[in-house]
Amino acid sequence: MRTSLLFLLIIAALVKADAQNLTTVGEIHDGTARDIASGYEVLYLAQGRNLALLDPGTGLRIRNFNDEPYPHPLVAVEFDKEANRLFVATQRHVYIHDKSTKRIRVWENEHERPIGDLVCIFEDEMMMVVLFDQVVLVDYATENPSIVSSFGV
Fold it and tell me: Structure pTM?
């Protein structure tokens, strides 16, 4: 009996020691976390109407990407390290932040179905935007991003 009690106390001490060494992997402040992307020295976390910048080593929030929240809740985020571009999707828009030139382009979803996700094809400057039952291919190489093609799923 003493041996099993001692064994349980040792296990409890080990579990407590492991629990103290856990690392926080993200902080949720203002809405449901929807997506995450890896930047150069930060992680971008889409949550609520804000894009949070997280420390990649600790997961702690550094600050928000913008001072003002986006007009609609965020659904997806992508980062192109080669071109230094950040893509932030809300249900109605995709914001393309060109961090090298400080330019922002916006593609507006004119369909009735909200945006569900996006995938960037970086080398061709195209992005596939999921509209739940339809996927559209958007060319963002120009000043005004536009749909090149679409197909149902």
Answer: 0.77
d(CA 101, CA 138): 21
What is the chain's pLDDT, residue by residue, as a tens digit (153 residues)? 555 444 444 454 444 444 444 444 445 556 677 889 998 889 999 988 999 999 988 888 888 888 888 999 999 999 998 889 999 999 999 999 998 888 999 999 988 889 999 998 877 889 999 997 899 999 998 889 999 998 886
**Burial (0-12, 13-18, 19+ Cβ within 10 Å), 51:** buried
Report yes or no: 51 and 72 within 8 Å, Cβ to Cβ: no
